[in-house]
Structure formats: C-alpha cells, structure tokens
Amino acid sequence: MKRWIAVLLTAMLAIMLQARATAESDNEISNFNRYADYTPQAAEPVGLIPGENHRTLVVWFSRVGNTVFDPDVDVVSSATLNRGEEGALLGNAQMIAGWIAEETGADRFLIQTAYTYPSDYHQTVQVGEGQDIDFVDLELAAHLEDVSGYDTVWLVSPIWHYTVCTPLRAFLEEADLSGKTIYVMTTHCGSRFADTVEKIQQMQPNATVIQGVAVSGNNPTNFESDVRAFVQGTMQ
Ligand SMILES: Cc1cc2nc3c(=O)[nH]c(=O)nc-3n(C[C@H](O)[C@H](O)[C@H](O)COP(=O)(O)O)c2cc1C
User: Fold this and answer.
1) Which domains does the chain have, with CATH numbers?
2) Is the minimum distance from the CB of 38 to ligand 1 under 6 angstroms?
3) Which residues contact 37 (CB under 8 A, 6 or more apart)?
4) Per the CB 3.0–4.6 Å rule, which of 37, 66, 138, 199 could disulfide with 170?
5) Is the pLDDT of residue 14 over 90?
6) How far apart are CA 87 and CA 73, in angstroms?
C-alpha cells in the first residue's frame, strides 16, 4: 500500500513540475509574441567559440543568430542584413565581431535569447522596443561558464530603442566583468552610442569601460578599416 502511495505522489510531483516548466516557457514566449504576430522558436545554443587568445573575449548580439529568417528574406529592405561568403546571411554586429576576432584571435560568444525574433525587420523593431519599454527580464539560451581568464572583453551590439538592446542588458545582468577592460562597439541607424557606455559602466561598476567605434548599420563595410585600426591601437 505504502509503495503505491509513494508511486502516486512521485507521479503527481512530476506532473506539477512539468506544468510549472510549461507555464514558465509560455511566459517567456509571451515576452516575444505579445508584441508582434509571429511564432518564436526555441533557440539552439551555440556557446563559446574558442580562438587562440584566451585572455580576450568578443561578445556580440545580432539579429542573425537570433532569428529564423524566411528563406526569401529581403536583404535590402531588412536594413540590417548582409550576404557573407557563399551567400550566408551576416548581421552587422556579427560582422564587426568577426573583424575584432581576426585582429585579436579572441574567443567568441554570441548572446542568444531563449526564443527567436521575427524575420520581418519592422516586427523585430516592435518586439525589441516593447521589451525595452516593459523592461522585460529576458531568459538567455547560452551562458558563459567562467570569465575569470579574460582581461579584455569586446561588447558588440546594435542600438535598440535608443539604448543598450535588451539581450545585451540580460547578458550584463548575469556576467560579472569586474576588473576587466570592456570596449564598447555599437552598430546603429543614427543613434551612434546613445547612452550605452554610461549604462554598461553602471551595470559593471568594477570594470574599465571604454568607448570604441560606432558603425553605421546602413554601410557597415565602410567602417571596417576604422574598426581594425581601433583594435590594433588597443594592442600596442
Ligand atoms: C528592435 C530594433 C530597434 C532599433 N532601434 C534603433 C535606435 O533606437 N537607434 C538606431 O540608431 N538604430 C536602431 N535600430 C537599428 C539597428 O541598431 C541597426 O540596424 C543595427 O545595425 C543592427 O545590427 P544587427 O544587424 O547586428 O542586428 C534598431 C533596430 C532594431 C531591430
């Protein structure tokens, strides 16, 4: 009899935990699809991509890597998309992060939210701005296990809604970058750095936060030599 009661209680606990997990993920999905009519997908985490220089880390957030794009997405009217080698989509922040990693040999880490943003640019603006206005607490799909070995961290991200984009805020809330030098690189359509340098300094009070290069999202490749020169200047 006692054995059957134990089995029943275990089954009830499993059902309750499952219901709670489902409720939590429904709540997280609603942080995306309450702002635009689309179907967010659960992200597939990439995690840390090792380079040969483990003292330097490049962290970036970009639409590419956080979006399931329609196969026929319009690169021109989507405003922030490029085609890389062999036609693969390339985000602006992703491209800048790639230049920095080539110069430094650094480890790389893509910030990924638990769910994806819409393929449509204008819907993404609605979602990103809604998340900022509501100050949502986003769940990330991938987490850095240990940052103690890094002395320099490059943060590369788009300006969203005139400030630090919500996924970067979520990353900065969970990572402790105390004692490190942080270089702030942005990509934007007019806001340049907005208040990102000040906000990042507020969120990481024990780091040295330095303004880097603001790259126009409309013609990012025009800034490649500026970015590479800035990075080289920090290594002399
Ligand atoms: C949600 C959202 C909000 C944006 N808000 C701003 C803004 O306030 N100021 C600005 O200059 N650009 C804004 N942009 C434009 C992006 O910063 C710009 O297109 C950037 O290059 C995109 O980088 P990515 O391709 O790496 O995602 C916004 C874009 C999105 C998707």
Assistant:
1) 35-234 (3.40.50.360)
2) no
3) 123
4) 138
5) no
6) 12
Distance between CA atoms of residues 225 and 59, nearest Å: 20
Helix (H, G, I), strand (E, B) or coil at 158: strand
What is the number of the ligand 1 atom nearest to the C-alpha of 191?
A: 11
Q: Residues 116, 43: contact at Cβ < 8 Å?
A: yes
Q: Is the pTM of this model over 0.85?
A: yes
How many beta carbons lie within 10 A of that of residue 105, not counting itself? Answer: 12
Full DSSP string of 178-206: TT-EEEEEEEESS-TTTTHHHHHHHHSTT
For 130-174, how does the pLDDT look when each residue is reduced to its tens digit (9 = 90+)?
999 999 999 999 999 899 999 999 999 999 999 999 999 999 999
Contact yes or no for 127/35 (Cβ under 8 A)? yes
Question: Given this model, what pLDDT does residue 17 score?
Answer: 63
The torsion of the CA quartet 91, 164, 58, 144, rounded to 10 degrees, works out to: -110
Q: Quick: pLDDT tens for 76-117.
A: 555 668 888 777 889 999 999 999 999 999 999 999 999 999
What is d(CA 52, CA 45) in angstroms, rounded to the nearest whole number? 22
Better pLDDT: 170 or 75: 170
Residue 200 CB less than 6 A away from ligand 1: no
